[in-house]
């Protein structure tokens, strides 16, 4: 049996993004590891040392992990772009339309709804949003339309 987690890279906005996700999904940030606390943490400037090397929160049965990619130059430092549709989405089942609407509204602040809620063959209420950090979210209420 596999356990799957989701790892997200940000341009110096990991902590800010995870504060939002913590609030949206009402779950605490479990751990933050700063660059300065890595075994080679003294190799970085004090500014870089404050960046997030790894953090996590529990989202249902998975852990959502994140990092500030800015200090990993080989990974690139492209800025988040909510107008660009991401290649991946985090798919979240929500209890009902009211909860789905609240989550969509919070994630859309500074981002963009790319598919408003509607019914389709696999969900009575389904939509997509790209948040202000360029992360794609697929939100749905389970059940038959």
From TrEMBL:
InterPro entries documented for this protein: Glyas_Bleomycin-R_OHBP_Dase, PhnB-like
A Pfam family: 3-dmu-9_3-mt
Domain PhnB-like: 3-139
Name the UniProt record assigns to this protein: VOC family protein
């Amino acid at each position: 049996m596999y356990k799957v987690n989701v790892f997200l890279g940000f341009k110096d906005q990991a902590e800010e993004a995870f504060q939002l996700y913590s609030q949206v999904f009402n779950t605490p940030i479990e751990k933050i590891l700063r660059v300065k606390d890595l075994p080679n943490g003294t190799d970085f400037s004090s500014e870089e040392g404050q960046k997030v090397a790894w953090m996590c929160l529990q989202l249902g049965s998975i852990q959502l992990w994140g990092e500030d990619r800015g200090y990993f130059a080989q990974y690139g430092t492209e800025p988040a772009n909510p107008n660009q549709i991401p290649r991946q989405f985090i798919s979240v089942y929500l209890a009902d339309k009211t909860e789905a609407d609240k989550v969509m509204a919070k994630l859309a602040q500074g981002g963009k709804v790319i598919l408003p809620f509607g019914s389709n063959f696999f969900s009575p209420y389904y939509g997509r949003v790209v948040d202000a950090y360029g992360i794609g979210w697929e939100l749905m209420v389970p059940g038959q339309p």
